[in-house]
Design brief:
The chain is an alpha/beta fold and 553 residues long. It has two domains: 312 residues, Aminopeptidase; 174 residues, 3-Layer(bba) Sandwich (Glucose Oxidase, domain 1). Helices cover 31% and strands 22% of the residues. The protein is built from 16 helices and 20 strands. The strands form three sheets. Strands 1, 2, 9, 12, 13, 16, 17, 18, 19 and 20 form a ten-stranded mixed β-sheet that branches. It has an eight-stranded mixed β-sheet with strand order 4-3-11-6-7-8-10-5. Strands 14-15 form a two-stranded antiparallel ribbon. The protein is elongated and about 80 Å long.
Amino acid sequence: MKTSSRSRSPWRQMLVSLFAVTFFAQSGLAWQTAAAPKAAPALTAAEKKAVAGVKLETIREITKALSAPEMQGRGTAQPGGDKAAKYLAARFQALGLKPLGDAGTYLQSINFKSAQVQPGASITAGDQTLKLRIDFIAAPPLTGDKNIEGKLAFAGYGRASEVNALDLAGKVAIVVLGPPKGVEKAVWDKENASQSVVFRLLGKKAAGVILANFGSPDQPYAMVADYLTRRSVSLADAVQPPATFPPIILVSDAGAEKLLTGSGSTYAQARAAADAGETAARVYETTVKINIPLKQETGIGSNVIGVLEGADPTLKEQAVVFSAHYDAFGVGADNRIYPGAADNALGVGEILSIAETLTHAQPRPRRSIIFLAVTGEEYGLLGAEHWVKHPTWKLDNVAADINLDGIGTEVWGPVKRIIGFGSEHSTLGAALEAVVAATGNVVAPDPLPEEKVFYRSDHFAFVKKGVPSLMLLGTPDIDADAMRTRAKKWMATDYHQPGDIVRPEWDWTGAQTVAVIGLLVGMRVADTDAMPAWLPSSQFNKARGGAAAAKPQ
């Protein structure tokens, strides 16, 4: 599952998400009471037979294969990602799925570009040297090598009165991210949100911007630094700011103190004065030199796509899509590998187990079934976005997308609770409730609605094109405190980290249950005369193939 991003233009996407400081979707999984099971028709004979065909062993085999060291973390446009794509294409072929990629293959090629700050990056202020990652990091957008020099200016909290009091042309401006003491965050953000402060400084022609006081107790500077020293990846045709765009730098408290050493004021003193409402904004005699060399590359990654043709002569022109992203963070500059076992080799194993079952189903589903393993999810749903812009199946004829992605909660014990992100928006919700009840499970509400998880995985690329979609997540029926403790620990140590590996204690029956639920919802959608529809109350209620959907509220 990708980190959160809520932006209004392509090249500001990562910057705005950075300011939002919402890198971790579920840092403590809040628990709510699940809905009581509703009476529902029993499974049909064909459905029971299909359920019996979902193999736990297949999910385990594929998850282990994809997260093995030789897959090198399945990085987007990296050798490990290419190896994973070829592995999945071979699995699709062995199942007898028809290729739905480029030129009669299972692969849809995508051009990417990447950038990464090099270890030689440095900042000096007078006789002080700041160290990359420990003292500072460069924030996106990374538009090219930076080598600038200018006097240091302290602009307080970046309020208009503070910024306008300074001549910032050619200066390197440092600001404290607010709110100041005694100011409510909601009041502050209305006029002084972090991104507004940055563009206010750039409007005064600052040569560079340094942001202090970044992070929070739950997401400290060190944690953010870990992310922002990794590769940044985008689609090759993505709009970028000009190469002359000034550098945006984040500093730790220790880094901020180094910047002001010898200036006649410490960082702590300058911040205290700004908090007290004193006139703290000033230009120092200290010269700051910023050198940010980048490694910029282009590369090719692939979506992997296969289709099981439907049995109905007419309805086979329509399709249900099962999606899951196979990419993880690959190999870092420090040669650490990010295996991505739970996020999201597990989801790929689940959709492959569904594919295996449906290829043997009798009768076959009436509609066609597309299996879509996408790349680039961790960098902003890039593979899914590419597919819906360059679909290999007519979008008007895509009945629904069922997406499998998560943090691996389904292997923490036998699954009894199913969360269907997006179920409140379309008739897929009713289909999910019926299936969950018929299998003896219960539907649980979104545990963290404020995190807007529905906007943060591959299904949302389909939603923006008017296709009703669900993301399924399974959780075990265990003590709420135990669940929160385990989730918090996993998010802190394994999420998007080298520790996301297959564990001996994993309970694979939970993943099997999630695959069963997805299978049954897909079968019912495939066999029902009418395609799923948006509910009139949904903000996404529009025709398939339409313009972008509503933004998160």
